[in-house]
Amino acid sequence: MVTISHAAPHRINDAQQLMTAFFADKNIDYLSPQLHTQGIEAQNDFTENMGVKWADYANTNAAIIPSIVQANLYQNARDYFQKLGLNTKGFIQWSQTTSTPAPNPIPSPPSSTPSLTPSPTSNSTWEINKHYNVGDLVTYNSKQYKCLQEHDSVDPN
Asked: Mind spelling out the 3-state secondary structure of the chain?
């Protein structure tokens, strides 16, 4: 998966060439253009930048899964891209949060203590057509993911 600042990498002199390479690369399964800048926006930002247009995404082999601030912004993103002839295959939610200390914080273990790995019952391999609840942990391509929104998974292809 490659995530991009809006339509293309920000402040990269060869952004158009890089995006052309990303579009052609069969090893990239997902392209995730960020439709936000700060992670606190109330609406999607469809800025085209660095000479790359959203229409250029029609040439990609990868599934387009925009990064959005809140799940309720996905329909707007999907509609926008569909008008351009682009189909999205889901989204990544990326919102800015603030940390609030727990009422009774749990002390950190000593630095010599290894970190804990979730037990197999709390982590499973991601599957197509499976229902996931908020907080579920899954592994996909050797990486662990936590479900942020209840949903049924779909085939990304």
From this structure: CEEEECCCCCCCCCHHHHHHHHHHCCCCCEEEEECCCCCCCCCCCCCCECCECHHHHHHCCCEECCEECCHHHHHHHHHHHHHCCCCECCCEECCCCCCCCCCCCCCCCCCCCCCCCCCHHHEEECCCCCEECCCCEEEECCEEEECCCCEECCCCC
Please tell me which of 15-19, 90-94, 138-142, 147-151 the model is most confident about, judged by mean pLDDT: 15-19
pTM higher than the cut 0.90: no
**Residues 49-74 pLDDT 10s:** 999 999 999 999 999 999 999 999 99
